[in-house]
Amino acid sequence: MGELGDALRELVDAAVRTEVPEAELEAAAVLARELAARLRASARGLHEIARVDDPETGERWYSPVYGPGSPVAPPLVASDTPDGRATGRVTVGKPHEGPPGLVHGGVVATLLDHVLARALRAAGRGGLTATLTVRYRRPVHLGVPLLLTAEMGETDGRRTTAHARLVAEDSPEVVLAEAEGLFIALRAERAADVFSATGRTVGAWTSRS
């Protein structure tokens, strides 16, 4: 499945960069639809959790941020520690472009949101994003190896804050963007309601500390 994700990301990159003639685009569209039909021969429902996912830890094979099986993930390579810290490394390409040559601001926010949430889950303080404040300090260029770091802040009942920053790996002293998030852990009964359509017990977004 990881190989398919890699291949599809190559395809997405090629699709947004190609300048081949229109006839070639039409032929490629036919092949793409044939492949889609082949994969849909056995597909899960819209709310069904993939069998390779772990809803208790929040690890998602098809996450649009880091999932190795996702054709739209950059993908971010992330790690975390139980003391509420997380790190992510990623190089963002053409499929996530906003202004010419720059990473889309929404993608920057998504990357920051993920490392914030990951830091909290690692500390047993999983929750859904309630607020996310992003400060864009400098343009973030495509093709530049990036480093994201996040750490847990204050806790108050089911509410937890966290802070994150984004820098270029070769210029860690220059902050490109930073974020502060407020996350609220779901009560077990609320989580059961929110995720009821999955038919599974989902514990990653509830507090365990």
UniProtKB/TrEMBL annotation:
<keyword id="KW-0443">Lipid metabolism</keyword>
<feature type="domain" description="Thioesterase">
    <location>
        <begin position="101"/>
        <end position="173"/>
    </location>
</feature>
<protein>
    <recommendedName>
        <fullName>Acyl-coenzyme A thioesterase THEM4</fullName>
        <ecNumber>3.1.2.2</ecNumber>
    </recommendedName>
</protein>
<dbReference type="InterPro" id="IPR029069">
    <property type="entry name" value="HotDog_dom_sf"/>
</dbReference>
<keyword id="KW-0053">Apoptosis</keyword>
<keyword id="KW-1003">Cell membrane</keyword>
<dbReference type="Pfam" id="PF03061">
    <property type="entry name" value="4HBT"/>
</dbReference>
<dbReference type="GO" id="GO:0016020">
    <property type="term" value="C:membrane"/>
</dbReference>
<dbReference type="GO" id="GO:0005737">
    <property type="term" value="C:cytoplasm"/>
</dbReference>
<keyword id="KW-0378">Hydrolase</keyword>
<keyword id="KW-0963">Cytoplasm</keyword>
<dbReference type="InterPro" id="IPR052365">
    <property type="entry name" value="THEM4/THEM5_acyl-CoA_thioest"/>
</dbReference>
<keyword id="KW-0472">Membrane</keyword>
<dbReference type="InterPro" id="IPR006683">
    <property type="entry name" value="Thioestr_dom"/>
</dbReference>
<keyword id="KW-0966">Cell projection</keyword>
<keyword id="KW-0276">Fatty acid metabolism</keyword>
<keyword id="KW-0809">Transit peptide</keyword>
<comment type="similarity">
    <text>Belongs to the THEM4/THEM5 thioesterase family.</text>
</comment>
<dbReference type="GO" id="GO:0006631">
    <property type="term" value="P:fatty acid metabolic process"/>
</dbReference>
<dbReference type="GO" id="GO:0016787">
    <property type="term" value="F:hydrolase activity"/>
</dbReference>
